Description:
It contains 10 helices and 7 strands. It is 55% helix and 12% strand. Helix 2 crosses helix 3 (78-89), helix 6 packs antiparallel against helix 7 (164-185) and helix 9 (206-234) crosses helix 10. The chain folds into 2 domains: 24-102 and 222-272, Rossmann fold, CATH 3.40.50; 104-217, no CATH class.
Amino acid sequence: MKYLFAVICSLLLTVQSFAQQKKTEIIVIGSIHQAVPNFNADTLYYILERVQPDIILAEIDSSFFTQDFQYKYPSKENEQNATIRYLARHPKAMVRPFEFEGRNEYRRERGMVPADNLTIKLLNSLYKANQLTAQQHAIVQAYHDITDSLKVRAAKSPQHFNNGTTDALAKRRQDLQHHGIASITNNRIEFDTTFLTKPNGEQISYRNGYQLWADFWDLRNQTMARNIMRMANHYPGKRLVVLTGFLHRYYILSELRKLTNGKDIELKEFYHFTSASNGK
Length: 280
């Protein structure tokens, strides 16, 4: 009896040690929000089944959830519909938000939205009318060219827009959008003398609104990465899937590589999993 008790204690300690040693895994999946021929809720659901996450992190804030983390509102977005389907089959799994809290209100109140779209619309009109300088024209042309290249990749299988090559293109495109284009709007009078009205009734120029919006890109992505890390630290040894628009992927991964340095956390790609080797 004493021998059997010792064996049981040894097995329990072994299981406990294994659980403690199990690495936390983070899989960042670059998604397309609305259904398209090559990517819809079914596509994403099958990826989730392949990875078998314990926790799904959604690119929305807490206002979209009830207190027990049920979705408040119906949605046509791929991420929500795939997640609901996955949770129905895996009731022990969880979904949690990781977005910048109050993102939409934050941008509207400060005039970032609709300054972003209005500024691009005005810029494109100057571009098409050949009213930009040669250097400015080259920036806008590069921005459009890279956007077109990304559209081609996004029309293929999910692996085509979840890899280092696409991440590098996305970074270049976003750098042009938030820095290159801002260098144009900050140096042309058209954007300083055209205004929109914020919700509080104050006016803001396209130039200032666009600059605020451009700066928010860094704040938003850095905040999202910290929120992901907070969840990873709160649930050690779990497998977390991050669902984010694929243009965010490069930034979030870059931040996570810094934040996970020296920690027992592993970053993986969804296509590194197979149904036979996902560890579930």
